[in-house]
Amino acid sequence: MFKERLSCCPLCKSRDISFKYEILSYSNKFTTDICKSCGFIFMNPQFDDETIKSFYSEQYYSGKSDYSYIDERGIKKYSSYVWDSRLKIIRKFAKGGNFLDVGCAFGGFLERASKWYSPFGIEISDYAATHAKKIFGDNIHHGTIFNHPFQAESFSVITMIELIEHLSDPKKAIEECYKLLKKDGLLLIQTANMDGLQAKSAGPRYEYFMPGHLSYFSKKNLCKLLRSVGFSYIKVFQPVEFGLLPKLLKSRGSFKSFKDYKAWIRIATYHYKSKIHCGDFALTSSMVVYAIK
Ligand SMILES: [Zn+2]
Prior knowledge:
Blueprint: E1 17-23, E2 30-35, E3 41-43, H1 49-55, H2 58-62, H3 76-93, E4 98-102, H4 108-113, E5 118-123, H5 126-136, E6 140-142, E7 155-161, H6 170-180, E8 181-192, H7 197-202, E9 215-216, H8 219-229, E10 233-237, H9 244-251, H10 263-273, E11 277-278, E12 281-282, E13 286-292
Parallel strand pairs: 4-5, 4-7, 5-6, 7-8
Antiparallel strand pairs: 1-2, 2-3, 3-9, 8-13, 10-13, 11-12
Helix pairs in contact: 3-9, 9-10
The structure holds zinc ion.
The site of zinc ion has 8 residues, from loops.
């Protein structure tokens, strides 16, 4: 179930690592360590590949496992508000070309992107990849960023939306994305910023600590990694690169009655709290990073 314990940081290879948290909220319990040198937090020991693959079965998308993800197909109309707003910003950096969504799930975001780009996807889940392949055929690779068939320097845009935290070797994944991008190509990464007060104050109860998440970045160490790999321009958006309205419209997808609109107060408060940040300090832990090759 677990691999051997890591003796050094997967990001900077420092051996100065120590215990951070024990996560007990799931049936798959695990512990995390922190690197004293770069602040990277990582699961240690890590689940083996078989255990990780077992997480992404149909149960992952149907909410039947204790660690699950919303099946986007039921709320596609609502998710499209966020996808379209994101694509509007992406198009400021790359107007067209090949577009790769790593961790594309059922391909909902790619469907919207296909209006301007040639869509490609990578998806580890057999269940989700089978569905995405019905739409995009062989443009979907059922596998990972480490065993894909794509050619170097062939993409204008690569997106990793809430994906990088699922990887045991995120450094290698970013290096791979760099290789796959054309010059001036864009890499978009959305993940949590563990330096945010939200994550720090919640400690082991922070919602991002879940069995499928192996890697926990901060704004500082993610930007440092991107620069070390060779990206020339990096821009960080907190909480996200688009405004509040698309998020409010998307949230309606899970509303059951008029009373659910109360959630808008919470979503708006969170959005504006996330605007309070300075340097490495941030009130919340949401971030989106745009990196140009
Ligand atoms: Zn480190």
